[in-house]
Structures are given as structure tokens and as C-alpha cells.
Amino acid sequence: MIYASAPGKINLFFEVGPLRPDGFHSVTSIYQSLAIRQRVGVTPAETWVVTTTGELPTEQLNLVPKGEENLVVIAAKKLAEFAGIEAQPMRFETIKQVPVAAGLAGGSADAAAALLALNEHWSLGVEMTELSEVAAKVGSDVPFALLGGTALGVDTGIELERLSDMPTKHIVLLVSPHGLGTKEVFGEFDRLSPNGEMSLSPEEAKAALSNGTLPIGKNALWGPAVDLRPELAQYAGLVSGQQGFLTGSGPTLYFLTDTKEQADEVAAKLSDLGHFTISTQTDQVGARLD
Ligand code: ATP
């Protein structure tokens, strides 16, 4: 079996513009990849099949489709179409560290890893820039899962510019037992602010990141997510002196600290309050063959 892996992500900054005629929003996103990764193995099979394992609660793993609706199968078919070959059914073994429907791009990371593994297995030799175009057809966060690091994303998030690596930060993820659908949160965004506007241009966001003035954790989906999950507002303030921020469309909150000791204290406090947490750190490695 050929294996590849790709990272989960957080959004250090996320702004959403008005709805476009194609039904998507323009966004300005500063992405940051994490040390938690999805691993995907591929091998030929009679039919398309996806198995999912990992150190996540069973109710999370049960949310993942086992057949052709899984993003790894969608990615495989898009890659075969791009390469002009017939898509042979494959068996995918997915091993997850990234929670499902959490705003951490777990499914997107699976898809990115699948693209890399299949490019190798099918001996396609598709270059990274083209693989990124195929990735964009699978989902907005898939190109970033391929690239990794710290990056500016514009358009729907698919036009990426890699930025200077951030100094390593420690991250505690507060994971909700029930996922939140990206479509649902954007629907609420449209209801609340049909003329969505951005406070910073992409260039301004980039400059602000490099001179330390970027409002880390600012996320235009915060209001809509809290409307749908009011408890998030309370969770964000559970640790005194440490604000929790929403990643993507949530519902995961991240707490960002400079040292592992501080992160351990945050994680202990949240666990004592009965929350499921994952401790990780920022990491600059994108998708790779394992
Ligand atoms: P993103 O941040 O990319 O919008 P997310 O991290 O919020 O995504 P995912 O973990 O990608 O959410 O899952 C969203 C939904 O996609 C799931 O509820 C599931 O039905 C579907 N899905 C399809 N393929 C996968 C996959 N390989 N892993 C997880 N979910 C998948």
C-alpha cells in the first residue's frame, strides 16, 4: 500500500466577502498547518471503499462516508479525469488525527493525501501546481492541505501564497462532540450580513501578519457560529487570560500559547471542565508521501 499524509489547519484570520454569482464567497484567509495529520493508504480494489480509523471518538468516525461520497474518492476521480485515464476503483485506508466536521479541514487533508498517494500509485507524474488545480475542484481547503505552512488564501481560499513560517506556537483544540456543517454556517452568515465585507485587503492582512498587528483569531464566521451554537461564546472565555478562537466554520475553538507549559495548563483546565481537547502545535509540513 502506498501512504501519504497531510495536515489539519487552523485559520489565524478569516474574513468573508459578499456572495458571488457562483454561490461561493470570496474570502481572505491566513491558514496555518498543524502537527496533527491524516494518513491515507491506497491499493486497487473491486469497488471504491474507504475505511476510517484513528484516535477519535467513535461518533466522530461514524460521520465519515465509507463509499463514493468520501472526499478521497471524489479526489481520485478528479485526478483520473485530469490525467485522462480511467479511474480504477481503489481501497483507501484513512487514519485520522483531525476531528470530523470541525473546521480543521480533516476531509480536505484526506483528499490532499489521497491525491499525492494516487499520483504515485498511478505513476502520473502530475506536478504540484497542477495537483493544486485538481485539489481546488475537490474543495476550497484542499490546495492548502497540499501546501501546508503559513499561507494567505484568497478567492475561495484556493489561490495561495506561502508566507514566512511563523515561530512555533502551541495549540489546544477544544473539540465539540457534534460537528457543524460549513454550508449551515455560511447560510447563517448570509442571513446576518448579506453584504459581507472585508476590513482588510489581502495585501493589508499579509502586511499586518508580518509586522505583528494582525488581529489573530478574527473570524467573520464567529457571529453565525455563535448564533447556531450559543455555548461557543461561553467556551471561548473559559480560560482566564486565554481567548479561544474559532477555526474556519467551527465549531472547534483553538487556544494559542507560546510555551508547552501554558498549553498544558489550558488543556488541563478545559479537561477538568469536561471538554474533549487535542494538544498540538503549529507545523510547516504540507502533504507528503510517507
Ligand atoms: P473544512 O474545514 O474543509 O470545511 P471540516 O474540517 O469542517 O471541513 P470535514 O472533516 O472535512 O469538515 O467533514 C465535513 C463533512 O464532509 C463530514 O460531515 C462528512 O459527511 C463529509 N466527508 C466527506 N469525506 C470526508 C472525509 N474523508 N473525512 C471527513 N468527512 C468527510
Characterize the structure shown:
- The longest helix has 16 residues.
- The termini are close together.
- The chain is an alpha+beta fold.
- It has ten helices and eleven strands.
- Strands 1, 2, 3, 4, 5, 6 and 11 form a seven-stranded mixed sheet that branches. A four-stranded antiparallel sheet has the order 8-9-7-10.
- It has a single domain, classed as Ribosomal Protein S5, domain 2 (2-Layer Sandwich).
- The structure holds adenosine-5'-triphosphate.
- The site of adenosine-5'-triphosphate (ATP) has 21 residues, from helix 2 and helix 3.
Topology:
Layout: E1 2-19, E2 25-44, E3 49-54, H1 58-61, H2 71-83, E4 90-96, H3 106-121, H4 128-138, H5 142-147, E5 150-154, E6 159-162, E7 170-175, H6 182-192, H7 202-210, H8 222-228, H9 231-236, E8 245-246, E9 253-257, H10 260-272, E10 276-281, E11 288-289
Parallel strand pairs: 3-4
Antiparallel strand pairs: 1-2, 1-11, 2-4, 2-5, 5-6, 7-9, 7-10, 8-9
